[in-house]
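Lab manual, section 2.4: Encoding a predicted structure.

Procedure: take the sequence of the chain (168 residues), apply the prediction step described in section 2.3, and record the output as structure tokens. A sample record is shown.
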Amino acid sequence: ESRGGVPRSARSGNLELLRGPKVLIRSLSGEPSAVADFTGDLMPAQGGAGVACLVPAVLEHDEVAAVEALINSAFYQWLLQGLGHPKSNAVQLMRHHYALLPWPFLTPGEVARLADAGRSIRAIGGAQRGDAAQHWAARTALDTTAYEILGIPSEVRAIVGQELWREL
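Recorded output:
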């Protein structure tokens, strides 16, 4: 930069958006799970490091929690695993994969239901730290909520159940 140029790795972006509420997604893993950053404290590293960032159009607490829950639901996990580039024991997701995701129009009640289902998983913590049975029951409840809200037929649910791979 001191010689009149910028490094090839430099990417312009809107740092103010990243400093706000957002959802971070592991984009190089077996399960591309998401975590909500409600305060804007978490910052993805430039150049990747296996994390993508989604900023909801409406930066409200429930909206961010609902996006996190939707990404962590079985249906979206299945979509992301199918869209990504297969790697050994992982799937790699890139910007163009996220553009292919269908984003539903949700009512405020549906946003609240998804957010609540996601919060119950967050309250329990990971399967390693808490009760694994309780953790998986909460994930199943999230999956059921997402299926109902999205109107996913039972035939597609069965396919997702057979093909989805999840980590503990």
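Check your result against the sample. The chain has seven helices and six strands.
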